[in-house]
Amino acid sequence: MSDTHAQTVAFVRETEIPPAPPPGRETGVYKWMRENLFSSIPNSVLTIVALALIYSLLSGTLPWLLNGVWNTSSLQECREVLDGQVGACFSVLTERWNQLLYGFKYPVEEYWRPNLALLLLLIALAPVLFFDLPRKLLAFTAVYPFIAFWLIWGGSILVPIVALLGFVAAGVVFQKYGKGSFAVGFFGGILAAIVVWNVGGFLIPEGASENAMLAAVPSRDLGGFMLNMMLGVTCVSLSVPLGIALALGRQSSMPLIKWICVVFIEFVRGVPLITLLFVASVMLSYFFPPDATVDLFLRVVIMITLFSSAYIAEVIRGGLAALPKGQYEAADSLGLDYPQAMRLIILPQALKISIPGIVNVAVGLFKDTTLVSVISMFDLLGMIRGPILASTEWNGVYWELLGFAAFLFFVVCYGISQYSQWLERRLATDHR
Amino acid sequence: MSELMSDRAIDRSKMQVSDEVAIEINNMNKWYGSFHVLRDINLTVNRGERIVIAGPSGSGKSTLIRCLNALEEHQQGKIVVDGTELSNDLKNIDKIRSEVGMVFQHFNLFPHLTILENCTLAPIWVRKTPKKEAEERAMHFLEKVKIPDQAHKYPGMLSGGQQQRVAIARSLCMMPRIMLFDEPTSALDPEMIKEVLDTMIELAEEGMTMLCVTHEMGFARQVANRVIFMADGQIVEQNEPEEFFNNPKSERTQQFLSQILGH
Fold first, then answer.
1. Residue B119: CATH number of its domain
2. I need a labelling partner for B11 at 20 to 30 A (CA). Which of A37, A216, A306, B99 fits?
């Protein structure tokens, strides 16, 4: 070939070659299938087996799902409508949706209150989750817990206001004295808050909750998926800061603080959550003054928060350990003090590394809120196992109810996991 | 070695050593556990001096300059930096650290912040400089180290030499009176070493007090007014660069110089 080429080495193209479409087998669906589904004999076999598996799954569930009955008032009636055919009795969901979502004692005419609280929750979370939003929105996030408390529990509006004032007083004292000495500011702030709360407690008139704007709803009337959401949101948002504090405490050079944190973390991690919940429901009242009635909801929140903060602390400790020592040294050498170095340099990087771990704990925690059904709180699972399955109308409707619970939890947990993946991509600045 | 020397004439007009003492170290000792790392160090550095500390690895030269801004603690003796004694008082330590710039072997830029934010962070938070002023100053120093166009990138997008120049600019933004360099070129490719050394030479020309741990003997010859040779945690020899390189007194120094200059 080189011989013939030698004579035609001088070459000038006189006609343009027009672009031609690729051969049929190199485009579209055909190419995709050949490359992805049937690239070799074992892969083709796997593809066929997987298709058979999907077919058997769908052929089993689809008739049941599509043939579902949505508007009967009892299982018996539903079975009559189905008349021996395969089909789901979704009418338990349409008939009992309010119990599943709000528990069976929350007053029906007050459903708008938790609904509004949920809507406001989304607004309050937005600036925390998406930090491109204006920072001023965080002011609403700060007051949101008090609004939500008032909306859900109702009663005198003075209670959340006094609580808020306590935090404001603590913040003011810390701002004023925290610059000189952190300890003075910190303990002064706590003292100020306690003073405000006690004074406020005296000032709120007896029976202020009786004829308040929003009717008071006691904690034992809360239930359903609302209870899971409340526990999940409260505990996650409390246990992340607590976990950060524990992780930093465990790294502290002050032996006393370090050992308190180590003992706490190791103890809490070594105890099953269900044990802590039993402690909350039965034994915790021994630790409070005899006449104090600490709300069961609050006790459960404390226990779940302590439990998950220990796990989050360990996750964050992993993130802290992953940072090169040079980052600490660079921050030190620039003259940043400890709080500045932590807040500006160390934690932003350590938390970024810890995101998958923290999300893992958060998702686990959210699902673990169903354990409160064991201490006779009627959360979503408690409602299903208790009032609904025990009723004469719906005794025996397992798949539909538990499938619904699984669906609700899946939606929330999948949302959390998608958010965390977005966050990781958003924070990827190291380009390594 | 010679190819790393700057090809331009060095302007010595501002490189004057004043009588004012910048750093004073008296009978300083340091141990790691029972290992005696620094033994009876005595050193006085005047303002405007450019000191190169050389020595075999493990001789304690990095530890020595890390003691000067309390990244390492010394157990005995006295260190006075810029008129403030280094003690356990955190206020003194923070004060000294904000007056003393440090450049590390591995740059230690903050990867989650842009170049500009790296440079403005400490002025804003430690010096309480208004943001706009801090940014202007940062751009000034980034221009000086010749990378103003990278200001909005992240450190991970820059080459090693560029990162090290940013690290120098970051230190300069604090307007330090003393600069410490801990093997600033050891982690760099040969062609990047020159750009960093040029930046350091410029800094020396402006009369900055510099303590530099380095193996760049060309830099020492050109810029330093004193070379200190350390071995086994002790200062073995110190002299002006000409004398030090051409006429080393101690046997240990001769051995070291023959090893690094021999090839």
1. 3.40.50.300
2. B99
Residues of chain B contacting A430 with CB distance shorter than 8 Å: 111-112, 154-156
State the angle between helix axes of A224-251 and A398-427 in degrees (0 to 180), rounded to the nearest 10.
40
Instruction: Compute chain B's Rg from CA coordinates.
Output: 18
Among B100, B106, B154, beta carbon nearest to A429: B154
Token pair 């990162």: residue? B163
**A181, A327, A329, A334: which to substitute to probe chain B, counting the most B Cβ within 10 Å?**
A334
Structure tokens at A377: 């709180």
pLDDT tens track for A66-87: 888 888 888 888 888 888 888 8
C-alpha distances out from residue A48 to A29, A34, A331, Å: 17, 13, 58
ipTM: 0.90
CA count, 13 A, side-chain hemisphere, A181 = 4
What is the layout of strands, in order, in the sheet containing B100-103? B100-103, B178-182, B209-213, B50-54, B226-231, B234-239
Nearest CB among B94, B101, B106 relative to A337 is that of B94
**pLDDT single digits (tens) B20-37:** 899 999 999 999 989 999
Tell me how far CA of residue B97 lies from CA of A336, B68, B91, B102, in angstroms: 8, 9, 10, 9
How many structural domains are present in chain B? 1
Residue A110: pLDDT over 80: yes
In a domain, B14, yes or no: no
Residue B85 in any domain: the answer is yes
Arithmetic mean of pLDDT over chain B = 89
For A41-99, the DSSP string reads HHHHHHHHHHHHHHHHHHHHHHHHHHT---S-SSHHHHHHHHTTS----THHHHHHHHH
pLDDT of residue A427: 85
Mutation target vs B (from A333, A342, A343, A423; most B CBs, 10 A cutoff) = A333
Residues spanned by the domain of B118: 21-262
Look at residue B6 and tell me if it is in a domain. Answer: no
Cα gap A332→A336, rounded to integer Å: 6
| A169 φ/ψ angles, rounded to the nearest 5 degrees | -60, -45
Helix locations, A270-397, DSSP H: 273-278, 296-322, 325-333, 338-340, 347-368, 380-383, 389-390
> Is B125 within the bounds of a domain?
yes
Decide if A100 contacts A380 (C-beta within 8 A).
yes
Question: Which pair of tokens denotes residue B120?
Answer: 């403005």
Q: Which two structure tokens, joined as six digits, stand for B209? A: 């007090």
- What is the identity of the amino acid at A63? P
